[in-house]
Design goal:
Low-confidence stretches: none
Strand order of the largest sheet: 9-14-13-10-11-12
CATH topology of the largest domain: Hexokinase, domain 1
Number of domains: 2
Structural class: alpha/beta
Family: Belongs to the bacterial glucokinase family.
Strand content: 15-25%
Catalytic activity: D-glucose + ATP = D-glucose 6-phosphate + ADP + H(+)
Largest sheet: 6 strands, mixed
Number of strands: 14
Helix content: 25-40%
Main location: cytoplasm
Order of helices and strands: EEEHEEEEHEHEEEEHHHHEHHEH
Radius of gyration: 19 Å
Shape: globular
Mean pLDDT: 94
Transmembrane segments: 285-305
GO cellular component, one term: cytosol
């Protein structure tokens, strides 16, 4: 039995990986548990199986050696502790967007919604980023014989670069609140919440901001979503230029599928292509919104196939 896990700041998802497919998916609120071991114990109890030959885990945080910590959680994961607690011969631990990148490799066209650009170029790098609780980024490098290498990054923690007067005032607002202002402070669920707070003085959930904006019921919500989507586009293009991702840029995370209908209306592609002397490069690069609901779980399993040791 192979278990795959996607550990996020909000939710932790677990499933069985069989024959390239995920089954028995369960979702747990991450902060309701004191450790990953508690979540895994609950999952094993629920499915009624305890003989696990391998577990592959993507976590929203930095992986260093055999340990990983999540920025938005009070607990982390240690490979040796898991092996001892559950007698699991093989434990694979990776950044959540490394797992998502492996998942991109296995997607079908029905799992994707194209947002401009030309056709993908064969044997070219791909880039993946996605906003949720934070902003994850990774790069996929093609190798020989249909094999791939995935480069995990912490690109979401690079600086936010304001491009107009409103964004400059937003930057100052965020700097006063957080000190260092990374792009994740804007392009994420909490970022969308903060943009709306900056514009309106009111604190509501990111979901409420999206609902108000999509219903066109609140000008501040519409402006907040526009700032969010434009900066999503700018950061996607930054990653595309750094990786020359002619194999495509893939937008994952929990937010994009919920607002996919307004990506064009709120300026994503315009911002993506607004790269001055590099405009001719980025306008050819296709962008896809990933519609697969469990990309991280799929990728954690695919990683075992492509890198079996």
């Amino acid at each position: 039995m192979i278990i795959v896990a996607d550990v996020g700041g909000t939710n932790t998802r677990l499933a069985l990986f069989k024959g390239g497919r995920i089954e028995e998916i369960k979702i747990y609120p991450s902060n309701s548990f004191r450790s990953f071991e508690e979540i895994l114990s609950e999952y094993l109890k629920t499915i009624g199986h305890y003989d696990c030959e391998a577990i592959s885990i993507g976590i929203a945080g930095t992986v260093s050696g055999s340990k990983a910590n999540c920025v938005n959680l009070s607990w982390g994961i240690e490979i040796e502790a898991l092996q001892m607690a559950f007698d699991i011969p093989k434990v694979v631990l990776m950044n959540d967007f490394e797992a998502a990148a492996w998942g991109v490799i296995a997607l079908s066209t029905s799992d994707l919604l194209k947002v401009g650009g030309k056709e993908t170029r064969a044997n070219s790098p791909r880039a993946i980023l996605g906003a949720g609780t934070g902003l994850g980024e990774a790069i996929i490098i093609p190798c020989n014989n249909q094999r791939f290498h995935v480069l995990p990054t912490e690109g979401g923690h690079t600086e936010f670069a304001p491009c107009d007067e409103t964004e400059w005032h937003l930057f100052q607002f965020l700097k006063e609140k957080y000190g260092h202002v990374s792009i994740e402070r804007v392009v994420s669920g909490p970022g969308l919440k903060d943009i709306f707070l900056f514009l309106s003085g009111n604190e509501v959930s990111p979901q409420t901001v999206v609902e108000l904006a999509l219903q066109k019921r609140d000008e501040n919500a519409m402006k907040a979503l526009e700032i969010f989507i434009k900066n999503y586009g700018k950061e996607a293009a930054n990653l595309a230029l750094k990786s020359l991702a002619f194999g495509g840029v893939y937008i994952a995370g929990g937010i994009a599928p919920k607002i996919k209908e307004v990506f064009a209306e709120f300026g994503f592609r315009d911002a993506f292509e607004d790269k001055g002397r590099m405009k001719a490069i980025v306008r050819d690069i296709p962008v896809f919104i990933v519609l697969h609901p469990y990309l991280g779980l799929l990728g954690a399993g695919i990683r075992l196939i492509h890198v079996p040791t």
